[in-house]
Amino acid sequence: MDDRFPDFMSSRLVAEPRANDNAAPESVSELAGRLKRMVEGEFGRVRLRGEISGYKRASSGHVYLALKDDAALIDGVMWRGSAGRLAFTPQDGVEVIATGKLTTYPGRSRYQIVIDHLELAGEGALMALLEKLKGKLAGEGLFDPAKKRPLPFLPRTIGIVTSPTGAVIRDILHRLADRCPTHVLVWPVKVQGEGAAAEIAAAVRGFAALPSRPILREDNAPPSEPKPYPGEGRGPVTEQSEGAANVAQLDPGLRRGTGSDATIYRPDLLIVARGGGSIEDLWCFNEEVVVRAVAASPIPVISAVGHETDTTLCDHAADLRAPTPTAAAELAVPVRADLAHTIATLSLRTQRCVRRYHDRGREQLAALVRVMPRRDALLGPQRQRLDDAAGRLSLALERRVATARRSLDRHGHALRPAMLTQRLAQARARFDGTARMLEQVNPDNLLQKGYVRVVARTNGKTVATAADARAAGALQLHFRDGVLDAKVERAGGRAYVEPTQPTLL
């Protein structure tokens, strides 16, 4: 053994207890535990500023990321409960301030920060995140102007996504009542703070999931019953703008059924509204989940978030942006008084047109009457021809009767009984002569003298030659006292075979 090294550093195969050494070897877990307690006890809670890198949200809901600056990097984790309270969606490259507890992860021998709260590092970082998300969604075509749909001219029902307690909903209802009272469905949501973005997106999707209003068929058959939508979150609350009670009474098709079983139909227009505020207050309307819900809505959407100078990504995704919630109500419906005035004006113009058409037709008819000949002038010649024809008809009838009478007198002698008897005797004599002649030429009279009359069996005609007999094949021999059947033998001695009628059975 080399004396330059202590005994405990000598190479041994199996570790053994040493003299004067009371320090037992530690396990890796024990050392990692000591380091963990030392780091947590020394540093405790810290606030770090850095840029997000490697952001990932696991299926369990936990968030894993790293914070870095120009010279260093530290891993971070945010448990599901804290991640659910985030006011924005973290993205790589965004500078943030993380507050949490510094600890270690023994499984990989790394130190990390367990983040309890994550916020953007100033308004500049917030705007950078906004521009990054805007570019991403614009690249997917969510803000394409070609996808914007026109708003319905006079919606029967308007759905509003906003806070039920703020001044926004009252301003909208009051403005609707002033312009054109309309039935309103309010879906109450939070418009600021934790969970606001999820509630707004759920409200937009919930309105889209409501059953469409049934369309009456031309044959007046009853429409099919739609299935009631069970709702998502708190669901819509039916409200009426001031002065809209009569409109709702005239609209029995808005709801079917009564009480809690009533079916609420899909509105014709949506208004997503909120009052003014800072960019942090309005941030939930910049969340990706809200923007995608608005862009995918089958119902036209008006975005009325903040004041005229405030712009959110929801404004870009909506079919129309209103500078204020009050302006959204003005864009949603026309002025009823203007509509009534327009209808009255059009009705008056229609009446004037009809009256003018009638007056012009009356004038044209009067002008035609003036140039048309009088009735006597038109019918006079016809009446004269009729009178002439009637006179000629009377004379012709008299002449025809006289002629018929002379003919009857001339031929009346032929109708005497003696003349009729003579003609009948002459006709009987001619008939008897014809009967005797027929009896003399009857071929069957010759049968009494030993002759036979040969008849073809197929057609009943008399056979006069041998060729006809061979062609007929089957014959009937008529004797004086009866009829016999006979067959003609073919050349070569073959007997005639009677053809049979084919059958389909």
Explain what the structure shows.
- With 505 residues, the protein is of the alpha/beta class.
- It is built from 13 helices and 16 strands.
- The protein has helices at residues 28-43, 80-83, 123-139, 167-179, 196-209, 245-249, 288-296, 313-317, 325-332, 336-371, 375-411, 417-441, 466-472, and strands spanning 45-57, 63-68, 73-78, 95-105, 110-120, 157-162, 183-188, 237-240, 255-256, 263-264, 269-274, 301-305, 320-321, 453-456, 474-478, 483-487.
- Helix 5 runs parallel beside helix 7 (288-296).
- The termini are far apart.
- Residues 224-233 and 239-261 have low confidence and may be disordered.
Key structural traits:
505 residues; alpha/beta; 16 strands
Topology:
Layout: H1 28-43, E1 45-57, E2 63-68, E3 73-78, H2 80-83, E4 95-105, E5 110-120, H3 123-139, E6 157-162, H4 167-179, E7 183-188, H5 196-209, E8 237-240, H6 245-249, E9 255-256, E10 263-264, E11 269-274, H7 288-296, E12 301-305, H8 313-317, E13 320-321, H9 325-332, H10 336-371, H11 375-411, H12 417-441, E14 453-456, H13 466-472, E15 474-478, E16 483-487
Parallel strand pairs: 3-5, 6-7, 6-11, 11-12, 12-13
Antiparallel strand pairs: 1-2, 1-4, 2-3, 4-5, 7-8, 9-10, 14-15, 15-16
Helix pairs in contact: 4-9, 5-7
